[in-house]
Amino acid sequence: MSLTFCNVHFSQQPEKVVYISNSLMKSLKLSGKKNIQLRLGKDMVNATVKPIKKTGKHLFLSSGVRSGIHVPNAGGVMLRNLQEDEVQLGPLIGVLSDGPSTSPSQPFASRTNFIKQLLREGKRKSYIFAFTPKDINWQQETVRGYFLNDNGTFYRKTVPLPDVVYNRLPSRKAETSSSINQLRERLTRKRIPFFNWSFFNKSDIYRLLEDDNTVNRYVPESHINPSPERIKDMLERHQFLYYKPSAGSLGKGIYRLTYLPKRGYFARYRKGGGNVLLRFSNFNSLMRMLKSRHGRTLETYVIQQGIRLVEIDNCPIDFRFHMHKNGSNKWVVVGVGAKKAGRGSVTTHLKNGGSLLTPEQALSRTFGDRSDEVLQNAKKVAITLAEAIEFHHQHLLGEIGFDLGIDQDEKVWMFEANAKPGRSIFSHPSLKAEGKASVEHILEHCLYLSKFRRRDVE
C-alpha cells in the first residue's frame, strides 16, 4: 500500500474519467493502468485513467466520478493505493455531535467553536465534517454533513458514511437511547472505527481498576451505593469523604462529608450558586438529610476516600490531565491545568468558583525546585492509568481527561476519568498551544484509525 498527498481538482467532463499527473501516477504505482476503482468512504466508482503532463501531484475528477462517490470539494487530500487498481481518497472523518437544528450558525450549540476548530485544522489533510444522528440516511448509506468554508461558515454536503467517527455527543441521556445504541452498532458492523464510545460511569472505572495491581494504588478507596455503616466506618478511618453521583459531571450533586470526633459531622455542598456548610450532632441526622434531598437516587452514588491535597492559601488544588492517543496509537499527555478550589467550595470546578493555574505555578508553591520532577512523575502515572483503562475497556478510546491529585508526600491520586473531557483548561493564556495540540492529536488519531497514517506519506 502506498499513501501520498495530492491536489484534487474538478473537471466538467460528464464521463467517468480521472486525469492523473505523471508524478502522482508514479507515486500510486499506476503507470500503464487504463482503469481504476476510486473510493471515498464506502462509495466506489469505476473510472478511466488518463495521464496528463503537469508538474506536481494532481488529480482531476470528472463530474461523473465526483457525483458517483459524493466528493465534497476540491483541495489537498490524501490518496491510498489499496490494491492494483483500487485507490481511496480521504480520509473521510466524521465528528458526531448534536444541537439545535434551528441555528445555522451555531448548529452544535456551545460545542460549535470547538467543532469549527477541528474542521478548520482537519480540512488541510482530509475531508472532515460534523453531523448529528438525524443527518444519517442508513438506506443510502450517506450523511448530510456540515463542512466549513474558508470564511468560517458552514455549508452542507451529502457524503458517504465516513472512514472514522469521533464521538462528541454532549448528553449522557442521549447516549443511552436506543437510537444511539443502534447507530453505534451499525457503524461497528460496517467496521467504521468509532472512538470515545460513551461517557464513563465513575463506579465502572473504579471497578475496572480496583483489581489491577499496576494502578489500583492510585485510586482512593471507593464504593458504589454504600450502606450507612460503610459511610460511618470510612468517615472514622479517613476523617473526610467525597460522596458523588456515579454519572454526574461538573461537580453537581457532590458532598464533602467530614467527621471531627469532638465536634460532630459536617456536610459541605453547592446550592443555588453558593456553598453550604451544615453541622450534625450525630451520624443518623446527617444520613436523614442526604436521604431527604436525594431519596432513591443515592443508590447511584459513590463514596470516596478524602485525600489531603497540596494547597495554595488553604485551598486544595487538583490537576486536569488532558490525554490523547497520537498518530502512532500511543497515549500522551497533551495539556495539564491546575485547578484551585474556591474558598469553601466542595470541588475545584471553575464554574463553582475555582481558578485555573499552570501546573508549574501550583507545584512550585509546595515543592519548589522539585516541582518539575513531581510533575513528570504525575505524567507517567497518567499514561499508566490511561493504558490500564484502555486495556480493561471494551471499546475504542482516543481521549481521556483525568482529575488527579497530588498529596504532601508527592503521591498521585486519580479521582475521576472522563471520556469526553471539557476543554476549559485550554482557556488559560499559557495553555493555548496545548489546546491547538489537542486538536492536532485528535486528527492524527483519526488518520491512524482510518489507516491514512501520516508516517507513510511519500
From TrEMBL:
Residues in ATP-grasp domain copies: 371-447
Keywords from the named record: ATP-binding, Nucleotide-binding
Molecular function, one GO term: metal ion binding
Pfam families: ATPgrasp_YheCD
InterPro entries according to UniProt: ATP-grasp, YheC/D
Record protein name field: ATP-grasp domain-containing protein
Originating organism: Paenibacillus rhizosphaerae
